[in-house]
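Entry 14. Structure prediction run on the chain below.
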Amino acid sequence: MKKEVTPLVNTECQKNLTYVTKLEDDLKAFQQQMKKRDFYKYECGRNSALEKLDGVFDEIKVFVERIDELGYNSSKFGHPEAIEGPEKQVENIKIEVNAMKQLWDHIADCQHAFEGYFATSWPKIDPFEMEDSVKKLMGALKNMKVDKRCDAYDGLMKEIKKWLVFLPLIGELRNDSMRDRHWDQIRKMVNSEF
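Output returned:
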């Protein structure tokens, strides 16, 4: 009986291993395709990005179901380690999605801070405190474990760098040595009344 069953078991085992390899390829393609999605783009906006990132978890469920099914078969055929690759791939996708969510939360915090700076009246502006705050936001951004080549990261980094150029200028304009004649010169240079 064992001689009759062994070739059938081997055939089914090979089929299962082939399905696992196909699943790995599908997950690899999914990861590559995911990199092209809108939530990696700075223009997407936080709310839209978070909504789309939540959608990725729904898509992952299909892969998790396949992993469960193939994992059950793999353990039955004596190869439970065969499914570890796809499990690790799904875990990496989840980690990446969560990292992108953290990035979008940080983007929202930065934009909220910048809007607050714009709303601050001139006499209450403290450019040095603002600069320190922006530097902390930049430090937090640099420490994030996220793809630093993605457009969302790059877009926020560019915005922060603009603020780091802009705030020292504000500090100079807030200097007590600024006189009415200096302001007149600035108005003339920018050709605007303010």
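The chain has one domain: 2-190.
Filed with the rest of this week's runs.
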